[in-house]
Amino acid sequence: MNLAPLDIIALSIFVVLWYSYTQFARYRARTTHSLSNILRQLRVDWMTTLTRKDHQIADAALLGNVERTVTFFASSTILVLAGVLTLLASADKVVEVLASIPFTAPSSPEKVQLKLAILALIFVFAFFKFTWAIRQFGFVSVLMGAAPQYRSTEFTDEDRDQFARQAAKVLDQAGHEYNNGLRAYYFALALLTWFLHPYLFLASTAVVVFVLYRREYRSTILRALLATKGLQPGPITNQKTETGDSQ
């Protein structure tokens, strides 16, 4: 089976844009205020507060809510994968349905199966990201249980701050893996339009990148989160942050 040159170009641009945006978000977060670096700071604040109070019941509940959300996506991904694999055995019917849609590019069962296989790979990737995030949130639970006790005299303020920074780093990494899984969903939605037409696929990929960028660096929620620290969107000045990428 040979893909048309336009299909190959569209798929190549899709892969390049996904990879490039992931790398761009990771390195841009070091120099520009974004959801990634403000959440990093807030997670450090959370863990610092945790080491300076008697009970962590509320903190455990908050972490449990996040874990349940990630678990929901991991379970949903399995269901989506099952649906995609089922469609692989019904490629002929999919071609018939696509042929009935106006302005749809001509296709064949083999091409449909290839597109479905790529879609399945994306959801497999998302599943691995979600499950790794779940494990890392579990590590945070262990750290919360091992946090220096408020009334303990064995730990200095420096010890508590060091513990808080490292615990926040684990929590931050878990959040990044969760965001990577969510990003896979965004790009999977863009890939769905490939079944209709390569040009629509290209346009959808560009829209997904634009939406991700706007939410990361230009969203209202970013302004609200930065305001809690007296910050504004833009370059980071006189501030040391240790961040990764975000949604």
What labels would you give this structure?
247 residues; mainly alpha; elongated; transmembrane helix; DUF599; DUF599 domain-containing protein; membrane
Fold and architecture overview:
With 247 residues, the protein is mostly helical. It has helices at 5-28, 35-50, 57-88, 91-99, 109-145, 157-192, 198-217, 220-227. The chain has one domain (34-227). It is built from eight helices and no strands. Helix 3 runs antiparallel to helix 5 (109-145) and helix 5 (109-145) runs antiparallel to helix 6 (157-192). The longest helix is centred in the middle third of the chain and has 37 residues, at 109-145. The radius of gyration is 22 Å and the shape is elongated. The two termini are 36 Å apart.
Shape: elongated
* Oligomer description: single chain
Task: Let me know the largest β-sheet.
Answer: none
Q: Please give the domain count.
A: 1
Specify the number of helices. Answer: 8
Sheet/helix structural class:
mainly alpha
Report the portion of residues in β strands.
under 5%
Mean pLDDT: 89
Question: What letter string, H or E per element, gives the SSE order?
Answer: HHHHHHHH
Work out the number of β strands.
Answer: 0
End-to-end distance: 36 Å
Q: Calculate Rg over CA atoms.
A: 22 Å
Which stretches of 5+ consecutive residues score pLDDT under 50?
Answer: 239-243
**Helix residue percentage:** over 70%
Protein name: DUF599 domain-containing protein
Transmembrane segments: 6-24, 116-134, 185-213
Keywords: Membrane, Transmembrane, Transmembrane helix
